[in-house]
Each structure stands twice: as structure tokens, then as C-alpha cells.
């Protein structure tokens, strides 16, 4: 059976949190959608004598995109709300952001059970806001990954990261 996309969320490491999901991870916000693209560049490796193009694998590339409802009242230091603030602060400070993509299913007690987790590190490439007439405002974030996603958490020195409080 296919995974229900409405259960997959992006979390960011927020060093300002005293308690969050899986330690200090926070939801990015009220997500509408997210996507991950991981690809390999191909290097052409053929000559004029070859009857068909040939390729070699080159460098890998990855990008994470998140679209969420935009609520400027989100609180710093709140694991359910502070992720977008971390992304804004990371972009402003030109610092990396530590990410977790996970299936989050309500646990019945007001929290979530996380499974199928993947971790990564990246840089916020862009943040854009949309304010349509008589519709919800949204924010879109593009993050360029520095490596392939992994089943194990990254170990970025916390001093290199920013938090929702700056």
C-alpha cells in the first residue's frame, strides 16, 4: 500500500528548543506539501566515433521543497511552530539547517509518533510568500541539500546552526 503523503512532514533542528520531536526538531509549520528531489549529474563520455551517446555518473544533487500556510504569529521555541523561523534565521545568517523528513501520525495523546525518518543538512536557497485574494497565504521554501538523505541523524556542530530565537 502506498504511503499517505498527508502523514509526511519536514522538521528542522531548532537549537532554541528545550524539548521537541526526536530531541530538538520542530515542525516547519502547517504544511500543504513537500517534495524531495535527489539526482545524479551525468557527464557525457562519448567521442565522434561512438554510434550512441555514453555517460558517466557525476556529482549528486538534492533539493527539498516545502509549502506551508503562512502564519506570522508562530512562536519561537514551540516545537509545533518554530521550524519556519529557524529556516528564516538560517537563510539570514547564511548557516546550514539540519533536517528530518518523517512520517508523523497522531498518537492520540496530542503528540505524534514518528517513523520512516530520513535526515539531511542543507542551505535555504529561497523563501517566497504568496498572498492571494480571499485565500490562505502560503510560504514556499527551497533548500539545497549538501548530501544525500540518510537513515541516521547528521552530526552538525550545534554552534554552526541557528535557532528560532536567532
- Indicate the CATH class: Mainly Beta
CATH architecture: Roll
Enter the CATH topology name.
Pnp Oxidase, Chain A
Unreliably modeled segments: none
Main sheet record:
7 strands, antiparallel
Structure summary:
The protein is mainly β.
Structure keywords:
Pnp Oxidase, Chain A; 166 residues; mainly beta
What does this structure look like?
The model has no long low-confidence stretch (mean pLDDT about 90). The protein has one helix spanning about 85-95; strands at about 10-15, 25, 30-45, 55-70, 95-105, 110-130, 140-145. It has a single domain, classed as Pnp Oxidase, Chain A. It has a seven-stranded antiparallel β-sheet with strand order 2-1-5-6-7-4-3, with helices on one face. With about 170 residues, it is mainly β. The protein has one helix and seven strands.
Give the SSE map:
Blueprint: E1 8-13, E2 25-27, E3 30-44, E4 55-69, H1 83-93, E5 97-106, E6 112-130, E7 138-145
Antiparallel strand pairs: 1-2, 1-5, 3-4, 4-7, 5-6, 6-7
Amino acid at each position: 500500500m502506498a504511503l499517505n503523503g498527508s502523514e509526511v512532514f519536514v522538521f528542522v533542528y531548532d537549537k532554541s528548543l528545550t524539548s521537541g520531536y526526536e530531541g530538538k526538531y520542530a515542525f516547519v509549520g502547517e504544511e500543504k506539501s513537500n517534495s524531495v528531489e535527489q539526482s545524479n549529474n551525468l557527464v557525457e563520455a562519448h567521442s565522434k566515433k561512438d554510434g550512441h551517446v555514453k555517460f558517466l555518473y557525476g556529482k549528486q544533487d538534492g533539493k527539498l521543497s516545502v509549502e506551508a500556510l503562512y502564519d506570522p504569529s508562530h512562536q519561537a521555541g514551540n516545537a509545533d511552530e518554530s521550524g519556519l523561523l529557524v529556516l528564516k534565521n538560517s537563510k539570514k545568517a547564511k548557516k546550514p539547517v539540519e533536517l528530518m523528513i518523517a512520517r508523523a501520525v497522531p498518537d492520540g495523546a496530542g503528540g505524534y509518533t514518528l517513523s520512516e525518518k530520513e535526515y539531511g543538512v542543507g542551505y535555504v536557497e529561497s523563501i517566497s510568500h504568496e498572498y492571494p485574494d480571499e485565500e490562505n497565504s502560503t510560504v514556499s521554501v527551497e533548500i539545497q541539500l549538501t548530501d544525500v538523505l540518510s537513515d541516521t541523524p547528521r552530526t552538525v556542530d550545534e554552534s554552526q546552526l541557528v535557532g528560532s530565537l536567532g
